[in-house]
């Protein structure tokens, strides 16, 4: 099962609807509610996949919230609330489950999107616990979409990239504030959070006629990271965006530029010409 | 693991927040967004639990949507959008998965809450597929809460109850329209949809000093249903509500009344005095 392709297939059949401003395929959807707009998205976290069975439960809860809020940040949104579900085997330790939710609750409230509801279900025995987080948000200024890089844009990234698995993926803060500061200071054409890997996530910013060129030597590396790991590992939860003007230096590092693309060209290449469009989490 | 108690414990720790109008514990939460209000809730559907492995996939998708929209109906809401996730084992048949989503898509659009996003993840092998649906809605008139039965109210139920498992649980239409018609014609004090069982769901409508008395002979039985099954089976997805005035006859059937309750009395009894507050799905 290729998750990404399946998701694409499924959502291609979704009809247009007057209340849908941004539909499936972006970090989150944007729908109209009377006078307002609502940003919404959902993410799953599976123990044994996104965290290990040894991960402290409070950090599992925090990561479940943080991943979903990171998508919200990448749309230019502010969280206002969240929902959380758990599907767990009947033999699960209740205090472990309580700690997961407590970690999630504290994180959700700290970042402005308190948990307002949820659902708990029992799976069969020996199934790894699974959690989902739905996040809701508002757009204070402008919703920033994918697939909208413009020729001549510079590519930027917040923070540092690579070797997230050592520690960062359990402790990161979603870049909600940074996204707002960036949107207030420059006109961002397109943005995503790096969850699957810099190469693959960058490919979602390219359009039919734009190609992203990454100067790998400019990637700000996290401690212990190598350039190949920074391109392919993912789980960085940093913002990757393109814009025509210079953002404040302390917020982001330039790592490349956007150029004209012909139909058969790869979406993302290095300055050495290597196709890195598919480097990242394989979703299989 | 007692799912209901665990959920209660978890949500008791949730802090109050200015944007939360109705928090955890009701059919759905209601949150404020600038000028508007958003109804939101999430529900899980596990193959082998809520449906069998033999259930046609399109009906699995439809039921996943219908269950969540039924909660929305019971709050007095109209759907505006939904999100759907799948967690499935890697060996899953893609065409089966596509059919589940297609069934969900058609149902969601028919009932006014198109799927605007989602997430797909792979579990380990041999794990039963699981789906979640998050539904969003608006409140055209008034949000109808639980725990708000008033002494002297009559208890009503829409449609027929019992023996849902034979067919109804895969084919029901969430009572969205009926809820709106009822709210427009009478002042409903409290309402829920019957998912876990009439006895147990009725107990959620009682308050500290109100007791629900059910005249079991008045319960409108579905074909093949017995009174005990109608009280305890659940999966009816009909509306159960209390009000002081008479709703239109074709919309609902009276099945009892609300009286004063002393602290140690059961929340729901039959006219014969039998405590049926706990009859229903055990959540274990």
Q: What would you say this structure looks like, in words?
A:
Chain A has 284 residues and is α+β, with helices and mostly antiparallel strands. Chain A has two domains: 3-11 and 20-138, 60s Ribosomal Protein L30, Chain: A, CATH 3.30.1330; 154-270, Alpha-Beta Complex (Phosphoribosyl-aminoimidazole Synthetase, Chain A, domain 2), CATH 3.90.650.10. Chain A has helices spanning 3-12, 57-74, 94-110, 168-171, 176-185, 198-203, 227-232, and strands at 20-22, 29-33, 36-46, 78-88, 115-122, 130-138, 154-157, 188-193, 210-214, 239-243, 253-260, 268-270. In chain A, strands 1-2-3-6-4-5 form a six-stranded mixed beta sheet, covered by helices on one side. In chain A, strands 8-10-7-11-9-12 form a six-stranded mixed beta sheet. The radius of gyration of chain A is 19 Å and the shape is globular.
Residue runs with pLDDT of under 50 for 5 or more positions of chain A: none
- Rg calc of chain A: 19 Å
User: Which CATH-level-2 architecture of the largest domain in chain A?
Assistant: 2-Layer Sandwich
Order of helices and strands of chain A: HEEEHEHEEEHHEHEHEEE
Largest interface between protein chains, with number of residues from each side: A-B, 66 and 67 residues
Kindly estimate the percentage of residues of chain A that lie in beta strands according to DSSP: 25-35%
Shape call of chain A = globular
Largest sheet of chain A: 6 strands, mixed
Classified in CATH, the superfamily of the largest domain in chain A is: PurM-like, N-terminal domain
């Amino acid at each position: 099962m290729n998750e990404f392709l399946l998701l694409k297939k499924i959502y291609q059949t979704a009809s247009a609807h007057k209340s849908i401003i941004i539909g499936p395929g972006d970090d989150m959807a944007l729908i109209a509610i009377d006078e307002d707009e609502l940003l919404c998205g959902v993410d799953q976290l599976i123990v044994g996949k996104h965290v290990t069975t040894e991960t402290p439960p409070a950090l599992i809860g925090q990561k479940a919230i943080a991943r979903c809020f990171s998508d919200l940040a990448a749309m230019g949104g502010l969280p206002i609330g969240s929902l959380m579900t758990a599907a767990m085997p009947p033999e699960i330790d209740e205090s472990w489950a309580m700690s997961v939710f407590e970690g999630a609750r504290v994180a959700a409230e700290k970042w402005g999107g308190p948990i307002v509801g949820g659902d708990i279900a029992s799976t069969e025995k020996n199934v790894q616990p699974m959690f989902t987080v739905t996040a809701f948000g508002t757009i204070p200024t402008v919703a920033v979409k994918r697939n909208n890089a413009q020729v001549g844009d510079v590519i930027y990234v917040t923070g540092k990239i690579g070797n997230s698995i050592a520690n960062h993926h359990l402790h990161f803060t979603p870049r909600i504030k940074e996204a707002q500061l960036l949107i207030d200071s420059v006109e961002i054409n397109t943005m995503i959070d790096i969850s699957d890997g810099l190469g693959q996530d960058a490919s979602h910013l390219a359009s039919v006629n734009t190609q992203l060129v990454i100067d790998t030597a400019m990637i700000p590396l996290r401690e212990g990271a190598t350039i190949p790991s920074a391109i392919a590992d993912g789980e960085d939860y940093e913002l990757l965006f393109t814009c025509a003007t210079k953002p404040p230096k302390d917020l982001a590092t330039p790592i490349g530029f956007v150029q004209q693309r012909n139909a058969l060209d790869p979406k993302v290449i290095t300055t050495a010409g290597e196709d890195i469009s598919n480097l990242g989490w394989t979703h299989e």
